[in-house]
Amino acid sequence: MLRLPALVVEIAVASTAYFVASILTFEVLTPVQDLFFVDFYSSASLLFLPHGVRVLTAWLLGWRSIIALLPGVFLTYFYLAGMKAFLPSRLAGIAIAVLVAPIVFETIARLWRDIRPSLNREPCWYCVMGAGVISAIVIGILTNLAFGSPPLDYFAFFIGDVLGLFVLMLILMLVFRQLRKASS
């Protein structure tokens, strides 16, 4: 049984990471994207870092990631949409954002093999990336259906999610490599 203080820490870390990744994406990366892709047809970010946060959180926490990410995802929607975050399409988007990745990891564990973290095996980073790609496909389809977006937006969401996951995993790999070097 997870104790309350541990749950509070998980919520604080995961939701803060999601919100910070969202702010970085929408306030820094998307304006830069708009400079290079002036006629880009979609409002989707081509480097959506929050997808990396939700996939890695689902990988690490499993079903607890739903609770851990929910405040951060809601805060992001509220930051971007204000009171429109309470519209049915936005609430569906919030649910999709927190539910899909843990469902994908659970489905992979039941149908193929358990790729979630374990003390007695090395992480399969290709597997995590694969789960992230599957999550990106499902999230892109469901979110765009909920928002009534045009079909081309599906591809932009997919590209942004996959690149966001890849870049976040690359950044974390470099950070942890530097931490290991510094400690040795």
TrEMBL record:
Cite the entry's keywords alphabetically.
Answer: Membrane, Transmembrane, Transmembrane helix
Stretches that traverse the bilayer:
7-26, 32-49, 61-80, 92-112, 124-148, 154-176
**What is the designated name of this protein?**
Uncharacterized protein
Q: Which organism is it from?
A: Cognatishimia maritima
